[in-house]
Amino acid sequence: MQKSILITGGAGFIGSHVIRRFVNNYPGYTIVNADNLTYAGNLENLKDIETAPNYIFRKTDITDKESVMALFNDFSFDGVIHLAAESHVDRSITSPDEFIYTNIIGTVNLLNAFRSSAPGVTGKKLFYHISTDEVYGSLGRSGLFTEETPYDPKSPYSASKASSDHMVRAFGNTFGFHWIISNCSNNYGPNQFPEKLIPLTINNIKTNRQIPVYGRGENVRDWLYVEDHAAAIDLIFHNGVPGETYNIGGDNEWKNIDLVTLLCRIMDEKLGRDKGTSEKLITFVTDRAGHDLRYAIDCRKLKRDLGWKPSVNFREGLTRTVEWYLANNEWLERIVSGEYTQYYQQQYTRKS
Ligand code: NAD
Ligand code: TYD
């Protein structure tokens, strides 16, 4: 079927995997990627599909109401998958304002443009909002986040995402259009910006720099390979029930220190270094302010209702990720110059 789909934030980490999947799997769809190319947006992530006949890139700042309206006027979208966001917790602690503009106001701009292009309850157009498990706050040593867990965000990032989730539900309810939200756990894989734990660790091992582990490394995250998230988004977009929320997770909890140690071992193997070489780089640094202790997801609803399950086991996914970063040195080199160097100095000199 011919359809026109807007995907926001498609030049970023998860967005680029979603764009690639949709462009390749649905030749009948026109995929419009609207992205402002912030420090985290990189069109190199999409080199392999940039000339595909069903792909269009449109540089758009979602905080700019007029640009968003113009985008919706130029295309008649049958659906929206909204990923564009400021996504890094540490940056939300040092400069929260961008998170409010992009994640909250940007989402509201999209919702306003969407409702004026898809008015009335009979419209079957879907606004699919991609969110995070961090909106639920922090767990103790036990328990899981379900779709019914009350929101309790604790960082400026998670509060801005929680706010955008509320806006999507409120606009859908008030103006009567179809919406879905999914809340996913931590993603990892190729193309992730090296400010996040896994690519930062890989890059620091590669360049023989200290690996900064916050606190004592006791915090726990649930990790999902990015292509499994993209597969879940595809399934939910096509088969999810409007008005529903789906949790997505990897059933794969790791303490940060155990994860970093495993990565050190994989890197030693891949770089042909003696066992234990990279572990010597592990350095405990001042903890993140308000650091959430543990995230863990109950994603039985998605498995039961839509038949999704993760396909990549963690050791295999981490090995693939390490191999990708080692094979794509130029991608990494270009990113770690300029803005990243400044960010890294600000973020880590005062922590060690
Ligand atoms: P990312 O930071 O890698 O990419 C974000 C993209 O959004 C970039 O391409 C950037 O240029 C674009 N963007 C930022 N501000 C914009 C603006 N004002 N206008 C237009 N585009 C803008 O993020 P990611 O890790 O790929 O995350 C994508 C989405 O998934 C986010 O909504 C995030 O909250 C959510 N999410 C991420 C994770 C994770 O582990 N990374 C987990 C769950 C949910
Ligand atoms: P991150 O990748 O920033 O994702 P999030 O904060 O959204 O979960 O961090 C993952 C975990 O790793 C989190 O508990 C914070 C920790 N961490 C470090 O210990 N050192 C670091 O340099 C970074 C970036 C994160």
How would you characterize the overall build of this protein?
- The protein has 352 residues and is an alpha/beta fold.
- It has two domains: 3-188 and 224-248, Rossmann fold, CATH 3.40.50.720; 197-220 and 253-290 and 314-348, UDP-galactose 4-epimerase, domain 1, CATH 3.90.25.
- The chain contains twelve helices and twelve strands.
- The longest helix has 21 residues, at 97-117.
- Bound molecules: nicotinamide-adenine-dinucleotide and thymidine-5'-diphosphate.
- The site of nicotinamide-adenine-dinucleotide has 30 residues, from helix 1, helix 4, strand 5 and strand 7.
Instruction: Give the SSE order as H and E letters.
Output: EHEEHEHHEHEEHEEHEEHEHHHH
Number of discrete helical segments: 12
> By helix and strand content, what is the structural category?
alpha/beta
Distance between the termini: 55 Å
What's the helical proportion of residues?
40-55%
The CATH class designation of the largest domain is: Alpha Beta
Query: C-alpha Rg, in Å?
Result: 20 Å
Report the portion of residues in β strands.
15-25%
Uncertain stretches of 5 or more adjacent residues: none
Strands ordered across the widest β-sheet? 3-2-1-4-5-6-10
